[in-house]
Amino acid sequence: MDGCLFCKIINGEISSEKVYEDGEMVALRDIAPQAPVHLLIIPKRHISGADGLRESDAALAGAILLTAKRLAEENSLENGWRVVTNVGEDGGQTVGHLHFHLLGGAKLGGFGGCVEGRG
Ligand code: AMP
Ligand code: ZN
């Protein structure tokens, strides 16, 4: 989608540190990490956010969650981790292309997905 930051990252117009890619999603390091491990898992197809998911996206949503689990294992997050997706203004969404934050590597604070004292 024109003007979408994550579409530009996915099509290579903007560089990123990709850690995983398959036919339907990419995972990359967040540019402003809120935890020692902070990855973004992003479907390649432009979807505005979790509010833009349709019934027909059920397999995609499930595949993204399974990718989060696998990336958590690969990043040695055996002590625990968190998946967060922000939706809309009140939810704190700043990029209007669906993405899931995978956070871990330290004791996370309460709701919000940030390491205590870092956000
Ligand atoms: P949200 O606020 O939930 O929409 O998440 C957007 C995330 O994208 C934030 O955590 C940003 O730090 C991250 N971000 C913004 N620009 C980039 C970029 N060029 N590469 C990687 N992550 C980015
Ligand atoms: Zn997009």
Layout of SSEs?
Elements: H1 5-10, E1 18-21, E2 25-29, E3 37-43, H2 58-74, E4 81-84, H3 88-91, E5 100-104
The structure holds adenosine monophosphate and zinc ion.
CATH topology: HIT family, subunit A
Question: What Rg do the Cα atoms give?
Answer: 14 Å
- The name of the CATH architecture is 2-Layer Sandwich
- Which strand-content bin applies to the residues? 15-25%
The low-pLDDT segments are none
CATH hierarchy, class: Alpha Beta
Q: What is the strand tally?
A: 5
Bound molecules: adenosine monophosphate, zinc ion
What about the largest sheet? 5 strands, antiparallel
- The H-and-E topology, N to C, reads as HEEEHEHE
Q: How would you write the strand order of the largest sheet?
A: 1-2-3-5-4
Mean pLDDT across the residues is 94
The CATH superfamily title: HIT-like
Briefly note the structural class of the backbone.
alpha+beta
**What global shape is seen?**
globular
In the residues, how many domains can be counted?
1
**Terminal Cα separation, in Å?**
30 Å
Number of helices: 3
Helix share, percent: 10-25%
Concise structural overview:
With 119 residues, this protein is α+β, with helices and mostly antiparallel strands.
Give a verbal description of the structure.
By secondary structure, the protein is α+β, with helices and mostly antiparallel strands. 23% of the residues lie in helices and 21% in strands. It contains three helices and five strands; from the N terminus they run αβββαβαβ. It has helices at 5-10, 58-74, 88-91; strands at residues 18-21, 25-29, 37-43, 81-84, 100-104. The protein has a five-stranded antiparallel β-sheet, covered by helices on one side. Adenosine monophosphate is lined by residues 5, 14, 16, 28, 30-32, 40, 86, 92-95.
